[in-house]
Specification:
Blueprint: H1 3-55, H2 62-71, E1 77-81, E2 86-90, H3 100-113, E3 117-121, E4 125-131, H4 135-201, H5 208-229, E5 238-241, H6 242-256, E6 261-266, E7 274-277, H7 279-296, E8 301-309, E9 313-320, H8 348-359, E10 363-370, E11 374-382
Parallel strand pairs: 6-8
Antiparallel strand pairs: 1-2, 1-4, 3-4, 5-7, 8-9, 9-11, 10-11
Helix pairs in contact: 1-2, 1-4, 4-5, 6-7, 7-8
Length: 384
């Protein structure tokens, strides 16, 4: 995924998160306003009941007392006269309610929180009803801010964890790339060292055939350098005969592998085996899988290439008779840094997957694998 595309996704996710926060605030504010109106209505009912109680003479006040009790449920209320003297209160802390200082503190807080409700009686005399918002309403007011804070903290921690994980993965990739470079250079360098040792033991000058083989190893070193230079850039694709490329790769690897490793290529009844590939990178994929197979077989066994085709696709099955891969690990082999040994599968298959799927728009996967019997990788390419 390109940097620009990642940036677009980050912006989209940020806008989405901001919209969620705004909608949460709007919805909660609507609930708060609705609950506040309901609580004010209940206080009004309590006030009306108190006024009727004050004005009643022989009227049965049982109903009015019940209205007063239920309407003030969970709402702290203080009733004062015109001079501010506390006459009555409801739903305050029963332990501290006998403390005048506590009552005055509650009264001052209520004055700041809500406008008082006036009770008029006896020729213009007034009482005032002050009240707190209920605990539920207070919690509901601040809930979205707590929610946004927790979500923000979670996103921050997630981002930091993701960044640390990404840096760790990048470090693994760099380490894997260094190992893969050494792995790629190992075969031609070892071959050249062997040629030099052989030349030292010769009585005469090297033969033309020997020099040609050395030239192949030097060309392989140049090819490895060119492969790594193409990582991160857009490769040029050409129409190539896939069967011919496989034959060429097998010819090179077979002369440099153990004599106990047998190579076979099966490509019967192919009509059109051409696909658009980058020669250097596709050859790298073949070499990676072949070297992994040789390592898995510990230098002894059989590697076979089976080519089949459909109308639009070419399938390449690469089979070995090595140790095999457990079914639980078949997807992990393409992850950067995954390895079952000291060398080989640290980064090679991860690069192979990127080369085939991103650069060539094909597919690569473990078709089948049986521990102790071997593994089959399948590469699928589109015909030209």
């Amino acid at each position: 995924m390109s940097f620009q595309l990642k940036l677009i996704w980050k912006i989209v996710l940020l806008i989405f998160a901001v919209n969620i926060a705004i909608m949460s605030l709007l919805y909660t504010n609507q609930l708060v306003k609705k609950l506040a109106r309901e609580e004010q209505n209940r206080v009004n009912q309590w006030t009306a009941a108190m006024q009727r109680l004050v004005e009643s003479d022989d009227e049965d006040v049982t109903f009015l007392m019940e209205v007063r009790r239920t309407s003030s449920n969970n709402i702290p209320i203080i009733l004062t006269d015109e001079q501010g003297t506390i006459l009555n209160y409801q739903n305050l802390d029963t332990v501290r309610a006998n403390d005048p200082k506590y009552l005055q503190e509650q009264l001052q807080e209520m004055k700041k929180e809500n406008e008082p409700i006036v009770i008029e009686y006896l020729e213009g005399r007034k009482n005032y009803v002050y009240y707190h918002n209920s605990t539920l309403l207070t919690q509901l007011k601040y809930y979205p801010y707590y929610q946004i804070g927790i979500i923000s903290l979670f996103l921050l921690v997630s981002y930091l964890a993701f960044s640390a994980s990404r840096r760790s993965e990048q470090n693994r990739v760099w380490v894997g790339l260094a190992k893969e470079t050494a792995h790629q250079l190992g075969t031609p360098i070892s071959s050249l060292i062997a040629w030099i040792d052989l030349f030292k033991d010769l009585d005469g000058p090297p033969t033309e055939e020997m020099l040609r083989e050395m030239e192949k190893d030097i060309e392989r070193l140049r090819l490895v350098s060119e492969r790594f230079s193409k990582i991160g850039s857009t490769p040029v694709l050409e129409d190539r005969d896939i069967k011919a490329m496989i034959d060429q790769s097998v010819a090179y690897m077979s002369t440099r592998a153990s004599s106990k490793v047998k190579f076979e290529v099966h490509a019967e009844e192919l009509h059109n085996c051409f696909a658009r590939v980058n020669v250097q990178l596709f050859d790298w994929v073949l070499e990676n899988i072949t070297k992994n197979a040789i390592d898995a077989m510990e230098g002894q066994g059989e590697i076979s290439f089976h080519l089949t085709e459909t109308k639009n696709l070419i399938h390449i099955d690469i089979r070995d008779t090595g140790k095999g891969i457990p079914s639980s690990k078949t997807k992990d082999v393409f992850k950067p840094g995954f390895t079952t040994k000291k060398r080989g599968w640290g980064l090679g298959l991860s690069l192979a997957k990127r080369i085939i799927e991103e650069y060539h728009r094909g597919k690569i996967f473990v078709k089948e694998s049986t521990p102790g019997k071997g593994t089959t990788f399948r590469i699928t390419l589109r015909k030209n």
